[in-house]
Amino acid sequence: MEQWRYVLTEPMSPAMNMAVDEAILVAHSEGKVPPTVRFYTWDPATLSIGYFQKAEKEINFDAVKANNLGFVRRATGGRAVLHDAELTYSVIVSEDHPKMPSSVTEAYKIISLGLLHGFQQLGLKAEMVWLASEEEKEKYSSPGSSACFDSPSWYELVVEGKKVAGSAQTRQKGVILQHGSILIDMDVDLLFSLLNFPSDRVRERMMESFRQKAVTINEVSGRHISLAEAIEAFHIGFATGLGVQLVTEPLTREETEMARELARTRYGTDEWNLRR
Questions:
Q1: Which residues are catalytic?
Q2: Which of 25, 57, 88, 162 is the most buried (most CB within 10 A)?
Q3: Residue 143: is its pLDDT beyond 50?
Q4: Which residues contact 171 (CB under 8 A, 6 or more apart)?
Q5: Contact 146/58 with Cβ under 8 angstroms?
Q6: pLDDT band for position 140 (cuts 50, 70, 90)
Q7: Which segments constitute the BPL/LPL catalytic domain (predicted)?
Q8: Total domains present in the chain
């Protein structure tokens, strides 16, 4: 069975978390590291936004500061995600890998099988739904202009008819980077307090729409799932879903040094985070 690298990093700053994902992508593009599955968390809890979002228009930075949250722009698309009571994953693999279809949508489906198997490992009746029409896609799309989750493909992971994960993908240097948020718990009120809306009435309507479309693991599991249990389940899930053996290895020294430089020069700067 093919071996991929599995990296579980300690809680990191928003800038470092995004920088590490890019550093792995660069190292993999140069043939220095194998395909990699990484799990990570955030310190402090962080609001991340998609590459194309208009930060100052869409985000309430006074609320971000008041709640002592971090902030970062991702290199991937999508909308605002609150990284708090959740597990973030990333998968980095060459576009020409035999397991990866050339289609972005189909590659998203293959990678997301890891998520599907992870949810099933936790005993949840998760399924991957093929959205065959714009009407069906709208059912799972993000409410409003800023709130998560992103809908990057015609496939959606659902439990009890609600979205259970938000993912986004980018391709650079011949490499696929897909990362996303696996919600264990979520403070919906906090998330929506961080986003700008035309009025409180619109905010309330969007929150209600969000609650009808998205769900967390602990809301549907009927019991408390710890971070450690989620990590174990999705470790098994990605190995099973991708049909590989995940071998635990640390980041290389070169990746760590590159990530620190990227955090300093890109992901930790206003030039990057407030660029739009």
A1: 148
A2: 25
A3: no
A4: 95, 104, 177
A5: yes
A6: low
A7: 31-246
A8: 1
